[in-house]
Amino acid sequence: MRGSTNKHQLRSDKTYRSIVDTAYRLYLENGIEATTIQQIAQEIGAHRATVYRYFGSQVEIGFAVAEQLNEELLGRYFGRLEVEIQEAGTAWEKLSIMIRVGNRVCREMPESMKFFALFDAYLDILPANAKLGMELDELLAETTLITRMTDVIEEGRKDGSIRSDIDSKLMAIALRQSFMTLWNRIVLWREGLRQAYGIANPEDLADVLLGATLDGIRARN
User: Fold this and answer.
1) Superfamily of domain 1-56 in the CATH hierarchy
2) 84 has a pLDDT exceeding 90
3) Which CATH code for domain 58-217?
């Protein structure tokens, strides 16, 4: 089925959806390493061979979960963004809204953010992890978002609201990477951050990074 069915058809398949949804739940409850395909099969009341008809490995299931969550996250993000960005004047204000909306959506979807962090860490310990890591990064790079951020930064270079000494695309990618890396850290090490640094709400670190970043990229007149 994996080789003969397109993605849209797979997602409309009840068994496929059941596998992905069940795997997501088990990954969050037990961790990805501790979850087996046999456990997933038992949870959905099927034989392990049924799961293998849809997915060739645990990694393939993980990518399916990540892709589904990423679409949900981006759908919520762009839905909010289209409304709020209308209030912006300069390009710097637009970029500020883009980042702030992203932070809020991450706060609102803690389980999704936890899965992304767990899956990223899981890929790091596998053989050929560099290749797999690049595949996950490609999945989560949010090409549409990066392109839009790059365009806004370019606009800011022209209207004088965003500094012009850094390549626009590199700035957009760096912004995305820095916030996603911090969120990975927050969701995986929340209790450790609280105890080590005495931080009541580790999520507040994202707001601090946001403020410092926005100030740093603003043009100085």
Assistant:
1) Homeodomain-like (1.10.10.60)
2) yes
3) 1.10.357.10
